[in-house]
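In keeping with the milestone schedule agreed at the kick-off meeting, the structural modelling team has produced records for the first pair of proteins. Each record is given below as a sequence line and a structure-token line. The laboratory manager (R.T.) confirmed that both were archived under the project's standard naming scheme.
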Amino acid sequence: MGLLTKKVERHPCEVEISHCFDSLHAHVKFLDGAVVYPGDEVIVTGPEVMAPYGEIVREEREAVIYRASKLEQLWTRMTGDFEFMELCEFSFSEEVTL
């Protein structure tokens, strides 16, 4: 893997979709222990998974991981903190109370 080249890998995975009152989530678990690093892209193949309300659906699928190049990894590590800061909410006021 060079400075600008990308690598494509295929891995078996399990997709879990929850559509319940307590939890609304989608998780992907790699069955062969694959790890995703900063800058990598993951696409799960197959048809759309829909969970009816109140249910959790689990399906085995194949995931395609597009590995980031060395330059993309470096860029993601350098700029990741700035993107996180966009999620933060700050407030400044003139009043000081203790």
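The second protein of the pair:
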Amino acid sequence: MRVLLLNLPPKGLISSRGKIHNRRIPPLEFLTTAAMLEEQRVDVRLADLAVQPLDKKDAARLAGEADRVFVTTSPYHRWQCPSLDIEEILENMADLPRHNLFVLGAHGSVFPEAMLRVTGARAVIRGEPEETVVDLCQSLDLQHIPGVTWQEGDVVHSTPDRPPADLMSLPVPAFHHLDPRLYRYELLGNNLTIFEGSRGCPYVCQFCLKSMFGHGYRKKTGQRLIQEVETAVRTTGVRRAYFFDLFFTGNDKAVRELCRHMINQRIDLTWSCQTRPDRVDAEMLVLMRKAGCRLIHYGIESGSQRLLDACGKNIRIKQIEEGVAMTHRAGIETACFFMIGLPGETQAESRETVRLARRLRPTYASFHVVIPYPGTPLHHKFVHESEPDAERTGNGTKSAGGWEPHSSALEHMIQCWPPPVSLGDQHPNELQTTARKAFLHYYLHPSYAVSRLQAGNWRSLAGQLRLFMDFVR
């Protein structure tokens, strides 16, 4: 059995729709899947075209040599915010053989029938893919495999959802399949890999897409995290890492255990994570800093308490201010993310968000127009009624150049993943202008320039400037 795991990224560092940063980060779910397949003595190859591009003919040749081909439209680090440039990803699939093609990712998990028809794949995998991929490599009796959607004639079939995986039952990811020197995060540096200590999140923010994570909040133990970090450092020589949990410090005990081990063993790893500013404390932050943490991502969202309450963020602005200030005192940089255009937002509340950003003084601030992703409560409440009918999609056809979906199917998939829309009192074009102005007002303010120059981290400042120019174009 020969298996190909294929990551097909959108083009460019910044997505054209939605202005989303396409970080060059390893596809963690494929590293875990590769480890599971190797336990079954399967010959597996992982090809990440985000860092090692192939033209369509070479990709098709590679796929033709495999018995099973698994393509992701949104790797692990994009499960929560998948690319809106879905047409670019679909174009990259055009010449792949269809008889052995299986598609996974957030797009197909939310709209499996449309993805099936627009790609012509043998089946679409819904939700967490690792265990389903292993099952499909053992059998093609689809009706007995949870979490798949496939088509026979004009009839589409779906098995029940697969229950979320027990993270402790999954093997240590096969880090040796990818060279960390090919990966980087502009705000952290080169020679990068990815870890996870948990999946899911116990909070219920209306804008958060959790279709790939299933229900609940699952954690790994500290010892398991230690094993994964040591394996990656020993086998690949990685120097930087991103713990990509939605809520890293929610796994409090494991985080502290991992940090103490990294300090005691003098593990030379610079890393970042993402969490909530109300779920950190001074002792934890100092411990994280000593263990190599240099950057924490915080989703702040809005400077309006009314909007924070309305979208289910369950946090007070005072808690945000205290958490970010504690992080800075511990010597850790911050990247804070703000949303423009939450439901019912006024122009005055948009200005409140910019003012909060200035008070917080994060090392990096990012302002984005709200995207009501399909599958979120926000989308269901405000966009669902105008969504195109998923049943009005046609099958594709095979041409000399490869698979070509009917225009109705392709249009449906593109419309299902629309660009940001207005949910407040501003027109969508006004929201984009407001977000751009927020970037400019924050980064061009004299106080920010002085603080960054005083910090003296020229490498991160250079990377930040490149990102800034891409976002405000």
